[in-house]
Design goal:
By secondary structure, this protein is mainly alpha-helical. It is 55% helix and 8% strand.
Length: 418
C-alpha cells in the first residue's frame, strides 16, 4: 500500500498548483493536512483493509475536488483491486468475516467502480495486447433468475438492482475488450452499419442483460404506482432506482451501437431519464447549493443522455440541469459535464435540419484536455465534413474551467466522516 500511496500524488505537485484567487490560507492549510495524512498512511506499513480503503477515499476526495481526475480514478481502481484481493484471500483461508466498517467500505467501492469509465480523454487508443483473452463468463447470476413478478418493498427492488448493476459491469468489462479485439467497434457513421460483426456470445449476453432490465422495470411498476411514499428518503430512493435502471438500460444499448441513428428510437426513455433527474434534484429545496457525494446520482445518466439524445429541447434541459444544480459525484462534475455537452450541441446543431441532426454530422465520441493551471478545458470532437465524403475534422473549443463548483472541503470531509 505504501508504494501505491507514494505513486499518487506527489503531494508536492498539489502544493505547487496555483489557482490564483482561490489559493487562500484555507487551501494551503488543506494541502498541508493532506500531506500529513499521506505521510501517516505511508508510515503505517502493514495496514488493515479498513485503513487502506479509507486512505484511498481521502485521496480520491481531495484530488477529485481540485480537479485531478486521473489520480481520483486511479484510487477507485486501487480500492476495487484491494477488495478483490481481500475477497480472494477470504476464500482461500478461514479468516474472520469483515467488520461493519469494512462491509460499508466494500459497498462504497462497489458503487464507485461504476465510475471507472469516466468521460473520455484526449488519448490515442491502446493497442490490444497479443495475449489471448480468458474465457467469456457473462452468465446471468442464478439469484437474478429468481426475480419476482412484482417487488413488495424498496429494499427488495434495491437488492435486484444491485445484482443487475454487477451483471452490467461484468458485461462491459469482459465484453467490450473482445469487441475491440475483433475490430468490431469501427466508429462507423453509416446508418445500419455493422450489427452483424458483433461476436454472437456478446450479443447473447447483451440480450440476457436487457431482458433482466425489462423484467426489473415490470416488477418495479406496481410498487411505484401503488405505494404512497410519505418519507422524503423513500421518494428519493424510488426515483433513484428507476433513474439508474433506465440509464443502465440505455448504457447497455449504447455499448454495442455503431449507428448513431439508433438512439432516435429511445426518445421516451431519454425523456424519462431527464424527468427523473429533475424530480430527484427537486426533492430538496437546497439542491442548487453545490453538493458532494461519492456515489453516482444524476450526472452520469445526464452525461450520456446529452450526448446521444439529439432532440434540441431535451438536450437543452440536460445542459440546464447540469449547470443549474452544481454537484460533484465521485470524479464526475456537473458543471464540467454541462459545458462539454454544450460544445457538442453547438458542433452538431450547425447542421440541424428542422429538429433533426443528420446522420453524418453526429459526433460519436468526445475528448477533452484539461489545463488546471490555466483553468480551461479544450473540448475535441471528430466530425464528418459532409454526407458525401469519409473525411473527418477535429472540432475544437476552449471553455473556462472553474476547477471546483463552490464545494467546500468541509463538505467533502463530512461525507468521508459519515
Amino acid at each position: 500500500m505504501t508504494s501505491r500511496v507514494r505513486s499518487q500524488g506527489n503531494v508536492r505537485d498539489a502544493a505547487r498548483r496555483d489557482f490564483g484567487s482561490t489559493a487562500s490560507r484555507h487551501y494551503k492549510y488543506a494541502v498541508q493536512e493532506y500531506a500529513r495524512a499521506i505521510k501517516y498512511a505511508q508510515e503505517e506499513g502493514g495496514q488493515d483493509l479498513r485503513t487502506a480503503l479509507m486512505t484511498s477515499l481521502v485521496i480520491l476526495a481531495f484530488e477529485g475536488w481540485i480537479g485531478s481526475h486521473e489520480i481520483a480514478v486511479q484510487q477507485i481502481r486501487i480500492g476495487t483491486r484491494l477488495l478483490m484481493e481481500w475477497k480472494q484471500q477470504q476464500k482461500q483461508a478461514s479468516t474472520p468475516g469483515p467488520s461493519d466498517d469494512e462491509n460499508l467500505l466494500s459497498h462504497v467501492f462497489t458503487r464507485l467502480s461504476i465510475q471507472l469509465r469516466p468521460p473520455p480523454k484526449d488519448q490515442p487508443p491502446q493497442a490490444s495486447p497479443p495475449t489471448p483473452l480468458p474465457p467469456l463468463k457473462i452468465d446471468m447470476p442464478p439469484s437474478l433468475q429468481r426475480m419476482p413478478l412484482s417487488f413488495s418493498t424498496i429494499a427488495e427492488a434495491g437488492l435486484y438492482y444491485g445484482l443487475i448493476v454487477r451483471f452490467a459491469v461484468t458485461f462491459v468489462s469482459q465484453g467490450l475488450p473482445r469487441i475491440a479485439r475483433a475490430g468490431s467497434l469501427t466508429g462507423a457513421y453509416t446508418p445500419g452499419s455493422a450489427s452483424e460483426v458483433i461476436p454472437p456470445e456478446i450479443a447473447q449476453a447483451q440480450l440476457a442483460l436487457t431482458e433482466s432490465l425489462h423484467q426489473w422495470m415490470a416488477a418495479f411498476a406496481p410498487l411505484k404506482n401503488g405505494t404512497e411514499f410519505k418519507q422524503l428518503e423513500q421518494r428519493k430512493a424510488c426515483i433513484t432506482l428507476e433513474l439508474h435502471m433506465k440509464a443502465t438500460y440505455m448504457g447497455t444499448i449504447k455499448s454495442l451501437a455503431q449507428d448513431e441513428m439508433v438512439f432516435e428510437a429511445y426518445y421516451d426513455i431519454y425523456k424519462d431519464i431527464v424527468d427523473l433527474s429533475e424530480a430527484l434534484l427537486n426533492c430538496s429545496p437546497a439542491s442548487k447549493i453545490p453538493k458532494f457525494c461519492f456515489d453516482s446520482g444524476v450526472i452520469i445518466p445526464l452525461w450520456f443522455t446529452g450526448h446521444k439524445c439529439r432532440d434540441p429541447v431535451l438536450r437543452r434541459r440536460v445542459i440546464a440541469l447540469l449547470l443549474t444544480y452544481p454537484r460533484r459525484e465521485g470524479v464526475w462534475d456537473s458543471v464540467f459535464a454541462g459545458l462539454v455537452i454544450e460544445c457538442v450541441r453547438g458542433f452538431e446543431e450547425e447542421y440541424i435540419d428542422g429538429r433533426k441532426i443528420p446522420w453524418w454530422a453526429r459526433i460519436r465520441t468526445t475528448n477533452f484536455d484539461v489545463d488546471l493551471e490555466k483553468r480551461t478545458v479544450e473540448v475535441q470532437c471528430e466530425q464528418r465534413t459532409s454526407p458525401h465524403s469519409d473525411e473527418t475534422v477535429i472540432r475544437r473549443k476552449t471553455v473556462d474551467y472553474y476547477v471546483y463548483t463552490g464545494i467546500t472541503l468541509e463538505q467533502v470531509g463530512a461525507v468521508i466522516a459519515r
